[in-house]
Amino acid sequence: MKLLFSESKSDYSLYLYPYVVWGYPEGSETPADFFEQGFLPSLPALSRFYLCRQLRLPLGQWKPDSENRRVLRKGSEVASELVERGKYEFTAARRASWLAFAEMQFGAGSMPQSRLDRLMSNPVVSHLLRFFDSNTGEELGTVLLYLEGNRVAYYYFSFYDLTKKSLNLGILMMTKAAEFFAAEGFKYLYLGTCYSEKALYKTQFLGVEFFNGHRWSNNLNELKYLIRSVPASHRLDEPDYLAYLEGGLEAAVATGTFRVVERTEPSHPESIIRER
């Protein structure tokens, strides 16, 4: 994995000089290697990834809790079908429906047709999970997915019928996806980023984890602190935040998954790489 650090907005008064961390695959590395280290796809061709605060659900021992079961019972007549992208009929009607959904849910211009078409023609969407009424066959929603072996199921974008308010399709589809991929033997379901109160609905599953910059954590109080507080400077300089890290800063250093080593190459004798 090659890392680049793209400079972002700085605040000299607080000694903040941020960099966005981009990862580029090397050799036999696959996207699953990046997901496991806290990265999400930055380009639909899966040629670049970015490090972020994201969520994942370990599926090995996962079971629905009482609230998950309530959601599943309420949507018991909603069925699902996993379809490879190459076999999925991406019709004009579906495109128009998804674009209208994005306008209403995310705001004007958030999902132009060119972006949607680019996603649907690139490796970042390998499969789609289609939801429909088991009695009538009426299509209710679709999730764009990236699947890799049994290591990664990435719940990317979801589109659904906003008129079916009683079904609460957004939560139902995610819960059914967790149930489906757990039954299929997948290791993790990746649920995207979590930087706002609005995104906390993704934490409705027992055992859900988030990447905090140096490791995966299942401490949801830590996550809520990060969302609900504004850092005065560096998070790892804040005593209030360090209180959420068992062992404090020293433990964060000890458990961190990133390190750099020197590697001698003919053209770059002092190049620095990241070692997993």
Q: Could you characterize what this model shows?
A:
The chain has a domain at 54-208: 3-Layer(aba) Sandwich (Aminopeptidase), CATH 3.40.630.30. The radius of gyration is 20 Å and the shape is globular. The protein has helices at 31-36, 66-74, 92-106, 113-119, 169-183, 220-228, 239-242, 248-255, and strands at residues 2-7, 19-24, 39-41, 49-51, 54-58, 78-84, 127-133, 139-148, 152-160, 188-193, 209-211, 216-217, 259-263, 271-275. Helices cover 26% and strands 28% of the residues. The chain has 276 residues and is α+β, with helices and mostly antiparallel strands. Mean pLDDT is 92; it is low at 269-276. An 8-stranded mixed beta sheet has the order 6-7-8-9-10-5-11-12. Strands 1-2-4-3 form a 4-stranded antiparallel beta sheet.
Content of β-strand: 25-35%
Q: What CATH architecture of the domain at 54-208 would you give? A: 3-Layer(aba) Sandwich
Roughly what percent helix?
Answer: 25-40%
Could you say which overall geometry the principal axes of the C-alpha atoms support?
globular
**End-to-end Cα distance:** 9 Å
CATH superfamily of the domain at 54-208: Gcn5-related N-acetyltransferase (GNAT)
> CATH class of the domain at 54-208, anyone?
Alpha Beta
Radius of gyration: 20 Å
Strand line-up in the sheet with most strands: 6-7-8-9-10-5-11-12
Mean pLDDT: 92
Order of helices and strands: EEHEEEHEHHEEEHEEEHHHEE
Looking at the structure, the CATH topology of the domain at 54-208 is Aminopeptidase
Low-confidence stretches: 269-276
Structural classification: alpha+beta
* Total helical segments: 8
Q: For the report, how would you describe the main beta sheet?
A: 8 strands, mixed
How many extended strands?
A: 14
